[in-house]
Each structure stands twice: as structure tokens, then as C-alpha cells.
């Protein structure tokens, strides 16, 4: 590693020579990625839609089994703006483990992370990382290119993260100051064999001299052929419909979730609710109450086997704009076996559809939904009567 680059000042009179050399230590290398995620070369991964990054955490723990503490520690966990978890391992070229052992490590992290990382944990860790760094809601909003108060976009993003994890739609990235040909061949092979997961290397060349440090990232190990194949295999089936959604549930989450989601759809149609079908990787449907152009989102059964309870949307639907009414919904659902924490009544907690499979439990769940709709319509009727009385 003895090449040079040259920096020419604006008046073309001073030429500064920068010598290539290794990073002082791996910790400095990792800290640079933590502080400057753009070094992950998101523009090279997809030139037409450059990746935008959220850092979930540095040294993110990975369990090796269910109900087990963290067995390993991933160097960095990032998520891109399309909700794709991105696992990053960093090694200097001088570390001979960069050739074989790091590959085995990464596969361990990926195989266990997609199974044992609940999205709630990832979201909580991201929020604690933001708090520690002094970031606020504008960080996520800027990556998603939405408003900081756009709860719909933010909740949809975390739902997408969960869907991607369930589907094994992740990205594994090996970062080094020099990637050896042996590692490059392994990356090319893995990337060519995997349909949903992406594997790539990023070589970050390091130059310094006269108080200047320059970093030059370059994607390696991704061929044009694998990029084209990957794009086709990752192209989502959109839009979702009744005909495509239920086979997806059966395939991904089993018969119990399939039957529960079917019963929920039948109930919603019988109540005259409008159905919004998700698009892309958002494989779900949402029953809506539509009144005078206003849409109220109630809940969303997803192909990942969960029902998302939309407390964040209920906040806009009287009388559930009052905390005590949403708390009553939580209490009624918990009586059926749900475990929704008290601090979730303004967010979007989930219930496993398999937990609703017993006929009595499913009937109880639908009765809660009936109660929500009836309370809302009774509130509207009372408001209309009061308004009429005031006008007389």
C-alpha cells in the first residue's frame, strides 16, 4: 500500500502529495463509519437511487438462540432508507482474519439476526443511539424524506424493516482498507448464489499527508450480472391483492395466520369497511373507516403473521383521540392474551395472529374491533345531535 494521490489547491500553485497507508487501528476505522455513514458508498450500490443510511448501533449484539443473551457482536448495524438491514464488519488489511474468518462471522450474524432480532429491539436501540449522539426526529425524517411529525411514514418504515428481516432481505457488507482477491472471490460467489440477500465489499483507501486525510470508498465483488439478477429477484410483487396476499401468508406464516387474516378480512367486508392493500414489501391490508373524505386506519394484518394495532392512527379518530379511550382498547386486547405495554397506546404494537387462532379468542378480538367502530359512530351521532340542538 504505497500509492499516492495529489491534492491541487484552487490557484493551481500548490500540489500536496498524500501517501496511502493503513488506518492506525481498527477502532478509528470503525469510528469513521459510525460518524460518516456515506463512506458505505450508497451511491455506488445504486447510482439511480443512492442509499441513505441510519445507524442503529455500533457493536450490535447477536443472539445465538431464542431466549439467549447476545453471543456475538456485529461491528455496525445500519438500515437504508428502504428498510433493508445492513450488517457491516470492518477489518484492516493487516488482519489476516479478513480473508476467511470474517466471512464465517458474518454468516453467523446474518443467519441468527434475521431470526432473533425483533424489530422492537432494533427500533429501541436506534432511538437510544440517537439520544446518545444528540440526534432528534429530523434524522430519521431526513433519511425517509418526510416530515418529522409524519407518523404514518415512520411507522410504515419500521414495518418494512420487520418485513425485510422476516423475508431474509438483508445486506452483508465487508469493509476493509484493502480487500484481498481471496475475499473478493468469496463475495462474488455468495452474492451470485443468494437471491434475497446482498453481499458486497467496500474497500476504503486511506491517504494522508501534511495534515490532510483522504478516504476513497469503492464497491468490490459485485458484478454487473449479479446486480441485474439481484434486482429482478428483489422486485416486489405489487400491488397486493386478495388473490396474492393469502398465498403469501400461508407460505410465510402458516395456516393459523392464514385463517385468522381471512376471517378478519371477511369481518371487515361484512362491516362495510374499505380495504387498503399494501404495496411492494408492505404485504398487508388495512380496513378503513371512510367518512366525508376522512380515512381512519384501524389495524393491519401482515403476511409476517402479525396484526399491527394502529393506536397511532386511532389518535385521530374521536373518541379515541383521548388517551383513556385508547387505554381501554389496550386493556380489552390484553384480556384476550395480548401483551401490549401501557406506553404503546400512541404507537403501533403487534399481536401474533397465531395467538388469535382459537375461535373464542378470535371472536373476542373482532368484538373489540366492533366496539371501536360502534363507539366512534356513537360519538359522531352524539356530536351531530348536539350541533343540531345548538342551532335551534
Task: List the keywords.
44% helix; eight-stranded mixed sheet; 2 domains; elongated; 392 residues; 13 helices; 14 strands; 23% strand; alpha+beta; three-stranded antiparallel sheet
Plain-language structure description:
- With about 400 residues, the chain is of the alpha+beta class.
- The chain has 2 domains: about 5-235, no CATH class; about 240-390.
- Helix content is about 45%, strand content about 25%.
- Helix 9 (about 240-255) runs antiparallel to helix 10.
Task: Summarize, please.
With 392 residues, this protein is an alpha+beta fold. It has helices spanning 26-35, 42-45, 101-116, 119-133, 137-144, 151-167, 181-193, 224-234, 242-253, 255-270, 311-314, 323-335, 359-391, and strands spanning 4-8, 15-20, 53-63, 70-80, 85-91, 171-176, 198-209, 212-220, 274-277, 285-291, 294-297, 299-301, 306-309, 350-352. It folds into two domains: 4-234, no CATH class; 242-391.
> What are the low-pLDDT stretches, counting only 5+ consecutive residues below 50?
231-237
- The multimeric state of the shown protein is single chain
| Coarse structural class | alpha+beta
Number of strands: 14
Biggest β-sheet, characterized?
8 strands, mixed
Overall body shape: elongated
Helix content: 40-55%
Tally of helical runs: 13
Strand content: 15-25%
How far from one another are the termini?
88 Å
Report the mean per-residue pLDDT as an integer.
87
Radius of gyration: 25 Å
Number of domains: 2
Order of helices and strands: EEHHEEEHHHHEHEEHHHEEEEEHHEH
